[in-house]
Specification:
Layout (H helix, E strand, L loop, with lengths): L15 H20 L3 E2 L5 E2 L14 E3 L5 E4 L4 H12 L7 E10 L3 E11 L3 H14 L5 E6 L1 H10 L3 H5 L3 H5 L4 H7 L4 H7 L8 H13 L4 E4 L10 E10 L2 E11 L2 E9 H13 L1
Parallel strand pairs: 1-5, 7-8
Antiparallel strand pairs: 2-4, 3-4, 5-6, 6-11, 7-9, 9-10, 10-11
Helix pairs in contact: 1-3, 1-10
């Protein structure tokens, strides 16, 4: 039996204060991003290209267009933003910085509201700086986690360790290998720990670890940790990657990627998690 007031699990409904807070967050974000030189884009709800951004096709909500071609509900904004700007506008615009405020949808009924930005030819350090500015404007103080997707990829290829062990964080298997330095990397969280481990890791990994160190030194987050063995399950991120947390709640993520030979860096803030954090903060 479905009650008249019932909504599907994973979908969103906003009343009174939560609706006000959602609009407040979106207003603050849009004003700051416009001040930083970003222009807004709203991509179509339906897309032909979502498989490029979502690793598991089972998460896509799929339909057919009048020509019986597969279309899906928007499950990720990044690829569509880059594709539409470069293919539709092309040389007619020099604008490289774009932001969006819109939900994405995953099977079966998951609705995820996001505030995101993509910076074509941008540096991740600059994108991370904008992300931290947004948290400051929203009076949220997250923990920043910095990773590098190339590190698990290189380890998997060079040392014949299944990438799935990293994707599913099977630490017991990683620590059970013959490579003692894997355990050292698994315990790294801070710069001094990374410096201590660096001489013991294979030389092929050191340039990628140095990139993590440089990004951490450049960021202005009060609480920052390193996670060298973390592997993001996004199809397009290819190198440095960051996440922001409060407690166990992810508030944002971002990274560098290349799509159709276009280099870009971007991030997404998770609006509903921010609403919860800010609402709780206001109640204290």
């Amino acid at each position: 039996m479905i009650f008249e007031h019932e909504i599907p699990a994973g979908s969103r409904l906003y009343f009174a204060e939560s609706a006000k807070e959602k609009r407040r967050i979106e207003r603050v974000a849009s004003e700051l991003l416009e001040k930083e030189g970003f222009e807004e884009i709203a991509t179509p709800l339906f897309s032909y290209h979502q498989h490029q951004g979502v690793r598991d096709r089972m998460e896509l909500l799929r339909f057919s267009d009048p020509q019986n071609r597969e279309v899906t509900l928007r499950a990720d904004s990044t690829i569509d933003v880059v594709r539409l700007v470069t293919k539709r506008l092309g040389r007619s615009t020099r604008q490289k910085k774009w932001f969006y405020i819109q939900p994405v949808y995953r099977y079966p009924t998951l609705e995820i509201n996001q505030i995101g930005a993509e910076w074509l030819d941008g540096r991740l350090a600059d994108v991370l700086d904008v992300t931290m500015s947004l948290f400051e404007a929203l009076e949220v103080d997250p923990i920043l986690q910095i990773s590098n997707i190339q590190i698990p990829v290189i380890i998997s290829f060079e040392f014949d360790i299944p990438l799935e062990w990293f994707a599913s964080m099977q630490l017991e298997k990683l620590l059970g290998t013959q490579y003692a330095w894997l355990g050292d990397l698994a315990r790294v969280q801070h710069l001094e720990q990374l410096d201590a481990v660096m001489p013991r890791v294979p030389e092929i990994l050191r340039p990628e670890l140095e990139k993590m160190k440089e990004l951490m030194e450049a960021c202005r987050c009060k609480q920052c940790v390193l996670a060298p063995l973390y592997y993001a399950k996004m199809r397009y991120y290819d190198g440095l990657f960051f996440q922001c947390f409060t407690g166990n709640s992810p508030l944002a993520s971002g990274g560098h990627f290349i799509n159709d030979d276009i280099s870009a860096a971007g991030f997404a803030l998770y609006t509903d998690a921010l609403i919860e954090v800010r609402t709780k903060g206001n109640e204290q």
